[in-house]
Design a protein that fits this description.
Layout: E1 2-8, E2 13-19, E3 29-36, E4 42-49, H1 60-72, E5 81-82, E6 92-97, E7 101-106, E8 115-126, E9 129-139, E10 147-148, H2 158-167
Parallel strand pairs: 1-4, 6-9, 6-10
Antiparallel strand pairs: 1-2, 2-7, 3-4, 3-5, 6-7, 8-9
Amino acid sequence: MIMLGTSFAKPSGCWTKPTRIQDINPEDIHGHIFMLSPDNRLVAYEYREGPPNNIAGTDPAFFQELIEYLQKNALASVLGLQVLYESPSKQMVEIVLKDVGTVMLDASEAKYGDIYRVTGWCVDQKDGLVDFKGGESHAKTTKGTHQVFVGGKALPDLAALKSLLKGEDII
């Protein structure tokens, strides 16, 4: 099994769910979130559908400095690197769906309670200044909990996912 994300619209978001390796096309996925492995390599632990991101313009020193920082501060099991096509333009909220993955939704299109933990930051560098912007966060649902318990229901497709989100009054 791998964690594979599928983007969708209306509302805008991404559903990342456990997917059997036999059910994927390895030529149509790419690493999306990377962690530092015990042998000090950045390895993907979450994937997205579609062609890989172009990181050719990224200074290789960035990756080495990141690895060294994670090692020095014992953060390899806490922080990962998410590779985006471009900087996120929207605030996103993440809802955990027990046993069927997670859903990232555009915060303006979702109903949720208070944000209780920021889970993603975007590094923006302009005019020699580096700015960390919050881009993703875990939110309490309208029922007051972070996790939406699905009770073992299989969700076969995006239509079923959206129906569940509407039924839980999240969208």
